[in-house]
Write a structure and sequence with these properties.
InterPro entries: TBRG1, WD40/YVTN_repeat-like_dom_sf, WD40_repeat_dom_sf. One of its GO terms (cellular component) is nucleus. By secondary structure, this protein is mainly β. It has one domain: 7 Propeller (Methylamine Dehydrogenase, Chain H), CATH 2.130.10.10. The protein has one helix and twelve strands.
């Protein structure tokens, strides 16, 4: 199976997705990949919210190839993407977003006390939810009508 053709089954239903005939397609991916332990910072080794054996990387899937980028932020504990924007949360509570295509920083969201444990998105409503380990708090962000 080529990298542009995918089929899977879910609850008795089959789904198949294929690339457009005669058109090239490129997809940005957020990948949690194995880390080089020698390059991990000491603060990450001491903080259980960090992933000392893995790191978030941006990758590009194009022409049946995956091109892996550098580690995004060694403090990253959660990542997701929404409408061409990458969202990253760190083990020390920082949450920021950037354009996937250019790498340009878009915004820094409300800082959390403690580490970010999860980032969830809903592409239908452009909603973003960020959970904190230490506060037991869920922050929900929704695009305002003026941003549409």
């Amino acid at each position: 199976m080529s990298a542009t053709d995918r089929c899977f089954s879910e609850a008795g239903a089959n789904y198949c997705y294929s690339s457009f005939d005669g058109q090239s397609t490129a997809v940005w991916l957020l990948v949690l990949a194995a880390s080089d332990m020698e390059t991990e910072p000491d603060h990450c080794m001491e903080n259980f919210n960090c992933h000392p054996i893995s790191s978030w990387r941006l990758a590009l899937l194009a022409k049946d190839m995956v091109i892996m980028g550098d580690t995004l932020d060694p403090r990253a504990s959660a990542a997701n993407a929404l409408a061409g924007i990458g969202i990253l949360g760190t083990c020390d509570g920082l949450v920021y977003s950037w354009e996937l295509s250019s790498g340009k920083k878009v915004a820094t969201l409300h800082p959390l006390k403690g580490g970010v444990s999860c980032i969830a998105v809903n592409s239908r409503s452009d909603a973003l939810a960020v959970a904190s380990n230490d506060e037991c708090v869920l922050h929900v962000y929704v695009k305002s009508p003026t941003e549409c």
